[in-house]
Amino acid sequence: MKCKILSLILVFAMTVSLFTVGAGAAELIYRDTDGHWAAETIEGFSRLGLIEGYNGQFFPNKNITRGEMAVILDRLMDYQTAAKNSFSDLGEAFYTDAVLKANAVGVMLGSNGTVRPTDPITRQEAAVLLCRALGLEGGGSVAQFSDRGQIASWAADAVGLMAAKGLIQGANGLFRPTEAITRAETVAILDRALGKLVSEGESASGRVDGNVVVRGAGAKLSDMTINGDLIIAEGVGVGEVHLNGVTITGRTIVRGGGVNSIYMNNVRANGGVVVNKLDGRVRVVTSGSTTVSVTLLQSGAILVGDGFKTVEIPADIAKGQTVEIQGNIERLVNSSEDAKITANGTIQTVEANVKTEIKGDAKVVGATGSADVKVNGSAVAKTDKPAAGGSSGGNSSTASKEITGAEKVTLKVGYGEKTADEALAALPTTVTLKLKDGKTISATVTEWKWASGVKYDSKPTADTPLTAEGSFTVPSGYTYSGSTTVQATVTVKALNKSKLEAAKDAYLDLQSKQTDDEKEAATDKTKILIKDSTPDQITAGVRFTTQKDWKPLEDTIRSIGI
Question: pTM to 2 decimals?
């Protein structure tokens, strides 16, 4: 992940010269990345096990193949199911399983019966695959690239979307869509896209600016704000994931989990939930104050609790999928003729774009749309507008559709942490809109800009609040007479001098604890200090370090300006 404390460490380094005692700079994994612009990111991803080199080298400037890209994405998401091999050019190789798994989840599709695993992947192909893997949807403009005419029509939306999110960049106004992407460039894109990875059994909390990927069962997220998407990846398998007190400004994408699986307690899923489990068997439970404005079911699911407000079943959901709703919801929109729907609870309104049959102990207050709605064979009367009342309360159907304004948006930026553009990119992509009846919905912010007269300083002498402005589109079916401009307060933090002094004191304390041998080894680059090691542990090229006592110093430096 991004080393967000780098600038703070540099500030500290200018204040006090650190010795390279034992735990100084970590030994590089690859001998060909020293001095490379992506060295730090390559090393970080290697330590996470997401990328590998060979023979002690990473070859950062070498082109990455389609097969290698599949391997990286498989390591990231831990895909669980492989498709049958229908590709004429895919034999047995280290990438075969990864390619078939990526094919099963719709990430790597191939064409004309081939998948070209050994071909270098082009920049536009990489954009498409990464969009699919990260669940990015929509499009964006490619007008900023002077070679946009060379971007294939099938890749234009992905390239535009990735560019709009700051995940891909051109050079000198060029995107070079048909050129191969390098291994280092691929890692750099993933680094921009990912804010945090949570593996099996791990816990996470705090603030994350970027997308979070949960890739293992038993993960627990608590008291957390995610300024990006949350992806519950295929690697969760049929295990559980617990979210408690989590706010997600982007979407929550559920691809993993089983029939006793995803628990959301006191969660604000501002960008809605997207369920897309390959076998359609996943259970999502809401409790406490959890509110999900829109849940899009791209696969079957079991939804439990009263936190789901609108549930949408699209026309392109896989055939034979079962949707089970256990709780009270405001609105069900069905566009699938094939989905099997069971409900136990009250549905205020069913909007039927196709004939809809609901089974179970369900009560449907009213129906809208172009097609008929039946519950256990009995027709539901059509209404002109969604009915009022129900489990969520409300004064009237009009009040439930009337927007009164947008909730405040705030962001804190650490000292020297972000440029002006990076701070804008860290603002949420959705805004919470307040309704007259007290409920809320979310809307997409089209663009954030600094307000007129704002001068951004990444290293202020005092905490500095700045105003950014964005615009949102009123969701279909809702009314709003106010301005569609929303403001955000971005507070750039000053350097915390008291904590810097504490870091200096921690360093001096550590220095005083050094033995004479350690001091000599630290200052004389021709000597090396080996401690607590037997002769048979010593091999050529091994560098022994002393890690103890450094964590307090590291923790203090991390806290500066936060």
Answer: 0.65
